[in-house]
């Protein structure tokens, strides 16, 4: 009887232990209720959130993805258990983000364009205003809006052999002032003028040389390197980090905040010009043809 009692106690203890272990394990990585186009995992040990853009095929920023990213970053800002974040893409080795969805700018009504641009503004204001350290793990190409999104983070780790840049002029469109200011802040006015006027798309190594990205590494090192730097960055005490980041970024954000309607009107007026529509249509066609 005694032996039976001992083994029964052992079984109960083992069950309790394994339940505790399971609780501990599942608590260390928390999956936020994510949309499937923006997956988010939070490590409860470090408080680091990994936000993975997962909209096939190339994370082009349409209304759905813009809204999902914006909502996610607003939640992460408000979540006091989150200390910092990494932004990356599910399509590693291929594309970080193909930038704004071109289809949303082609043959659309003024209302559609206005709503789309309002979402672009909100996405920019939210990520650029994210109060905690944010590191981009750029694991694929990052043209146009993809580059802008990476520039909104506080540190950029990029995979070797891909491209990045604000190359809008090559499409016959012009990056908004708040994208241009992101580039100026990272690489200085001279490089930014050259990059934007000529729609220059930098290789990873070229981007490193001008300071557009901070590190270039092998694909399998992109996220670990980003995590390493995030660990260092989160050592800066809060609210010092957020106060400093905010005052350095405030001017351009305020310019936009103070005239969002004017900025939307400017975008709609520009994009609806027949020659701009023709250029966007031609570019879309060329993108499709590339495959053939
Ligand atoms: C005042 C006006 C301000 C406007 C500001 C605009 C800022 C922007 O962000 S404009 C966005 C411009 N984006 C680009 O120029 C990027 C275009 N895409 C690419 O260069 C490539 O797709 C890539 C290098 C990112 C990836 O190449 P990959 O070979 O892997 O994929 P693809 O076969 O080219 O593309 C797959 C699929 O996706 C479609 N697509 C690609 N990019 C976009 C996009 N930005 N918007 C909408 N759709 C896009 C592409 O056409 C293919 O579609 P199909 O499979 O249907 O052929």
TrEMBL record:
GO terms for biological process: fatty acid beta-oxidation. CDD domains: crotonase-like. One of its GO terms (molecular function) is delta(3)-delta(2)-enoyl-CoA isomerase activity. SUPFAM superfamilies: ClpP/crotonase (SSF52096). It catalyses: (3Z)-octenoyl-CoA = (2E)-octenoyl-CoA; (3Z)-hexenoyl-CoA = (2E)-hexenoyl-CoA; (3Z)-dodecenoyl-CoA = (2E)-dodecenoyl-CoA; (3Z)-decenoyl-CoA = (2E)-decenoyl-CoA. Keywords: Acetylation, Fatty acid metabolism, Isomerase, Lipid metabolism, Mitochondrion, Transit peptide. It comes from the Eukaryota. Homotrimer. Signal peptide: none annotated. Pathway: Lipid metabolism; fatty acid beta-oxidation. Coiled coil: none annotated. InterPro entries: ClpP/crotonase-like_dom_sf, Enoyl-CoA_hydra/iso. The keyword Isomerase applies. This is Enoyl-CoA delta isomerase 1, mitochondrial. One of its GO terms (cellular component) is mitochondrial matrix. Key enzyme of fatty acid beta-oxidation. Able to isomerize both 3-cis (3Z) and 3-trans (3E) double bonds into the 2-trans (2E) form in a range of enoyl-CoA species, with a preference for (3Z)-enoyl-CoAs over (3E)-enoyl-CoAs. The catalytic efficiency of this enzyme is not affected by the fatty acyl chain length. It is found in: Mitochondrion matrix. Pfam families: ECH_1 (PF00378).
């Amino acid at each position: 009887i005694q032996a039976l009692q001992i083994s029964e106690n052992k079984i109960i203890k083992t069950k309790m232990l394994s339940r505790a272990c399971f609780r501990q394990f599942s608590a260390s990585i928390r999956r936020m209720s994510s949309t499937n186009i923006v997956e988010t995992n939070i490590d409860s040990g470090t408080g680091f959130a990994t936000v993975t853009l997962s909209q096939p095929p190339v994370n082009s920023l349409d209304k759905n993805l813009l809204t999902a990213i914006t909502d996610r970053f607003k939640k992460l800002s408000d979540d006091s258990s989150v200390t910092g974040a990494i932004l990356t893409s599910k399509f590693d080795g291929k594309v970080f983000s193909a930038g704004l969805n071109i289809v949303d700018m082609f043959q659309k009504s003024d209302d559609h364009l206005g709503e789309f641009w309002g979402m672009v503004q909100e996405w920019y204001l939210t990520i650029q205003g994210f109060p905690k350290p944010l590191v981009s793990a750029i694991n694929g190409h990052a043209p146009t809006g993809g580059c802008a999104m990476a520039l909104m983070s506080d540190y950029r780790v990029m995979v070797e052999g891909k491209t990045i840049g604000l190359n809008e002029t090559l499409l016959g469109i012009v990056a908004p002032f708040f994208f241009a200011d992101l580039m100026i802040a990272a690489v200085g006015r001279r490089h930014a003028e050259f990059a934007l006027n000529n729609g220059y798309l930098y290789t990873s190594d070229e981007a490193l040389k001008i300071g557009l990205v901070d590190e270039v590494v092998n694909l399998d090192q992109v996220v670990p390197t980003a995590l390493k730097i995030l660990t260092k960055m989160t050592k800066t005490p809060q609210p010092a980090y957020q106060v400093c980041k905010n005052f350095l970024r405030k001017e351009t954000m305020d310019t936009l905040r103070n005239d969002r309607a004017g900025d939307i009107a400017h975008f709609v007026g520009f994009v609806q010009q027949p020659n701009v529509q023709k250029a966007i249509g031609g570019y879309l066609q060329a993108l499709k043809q590339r495959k053939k």
